[in-house]
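pasting for ref
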Amino acid sequence: MNTKNRRLTLADLKNPVNFMTLGFGSGLSKYAPGTMGTLVAVPIYLLLQPLPLLYYIAIAVGVSLAGIWLCDYTAKTLGIHDHPGIVWDEIAGYLLTMVAAPAGWQWIVLGFCLFRLFDIWKPWPIKWIDHKVGGGFGIMLDDIVAALFAWGILQLVAILILSA
């Protein structure tokens, strides 16, 4: 079966790798699984936020690098490249978006909205990556680039607001 419409079930979560890449179950959402996966990233961010910046960056990069193998494994297990239920890339993308973000709920929400905007809109080169780069690397890369776009705008807004 090679269709993105394959419905995921709780049985898909029995495999520990799939459990992680399917966002601990959030990827099974019938509606907006990418958004649900990004929501899962918020409490993870809140747990990591107090860490020194270098540790936070190391973990966010580690989550992203691990995602290449994890997402590739799940895509092969499901028989579908970049199934919408694979949301590890959204988790990693949100964590990358929030690198060095100012503290406060408004920054958490802004980072969330910016990341979802770029992940859904997919301006160039994100859309090109999404269509042309395969495997786990491709699954992760478009979200990493979306996160870089979101991170840049979040940092610009922070500079403009906090230095005013």
